[in-house]
Fold:
Amino acid sequence: MSIRRTTRPQRVMMTVAMSATVALALTGCGGDSDGTDSGAAGSPSASSSPAAEDKGQQQPDTAAGDPVDPNVKLAEAQGEDGLTLVVHAVKRDAGGFVTVQAEIKNTGSETRNTAGWGGQEPTIVAKNPNSVAGATLVDKTGKKRYYVLRDTDARCLCTTAIAPLSPGGSASVFMQFPAPPDTTNEVDFTLPTFATTSLKISG
Structure:
């Protein structure tokens, strides 16, 4: 009986294939909650978010989600210098994700820059210029904070490359987060430079 041996080139190709599969995993970002917050006073601490790994779990969409009715206003948050954020939809998806869809309007008299919405993590800001990657959801009951999902290259599952808003201008945005437990139906939503607002999750 002959024994078939794997050659070195074959072993290299197998290793490359396995590495490519692992690279498809999507991850959230955070650390375990201990009831205190080192980043923002008065808020629960950051929590680990469920990872959307390539293990049969549905991956979140990278598009803005289903069309929304611009006349629906679930919540409104005031920002700096005449900016207003209006939330149109907060939907829990079957794959274990929450998608927030909103519109940011410039009601002021001057053009406003959008760079501050990306947060303060240098890697995230660099990979997602002029984005809403700095948004978070906070489950006050579970004392956990959820960050916008990003892939293994630190690219967020959210709107990026948002142009400066001229007076009267607006931008439609979306953000996808790991979903809180099914028992959590209400969360606090924060986008840098905007006030925190409470959101009810549907779906």
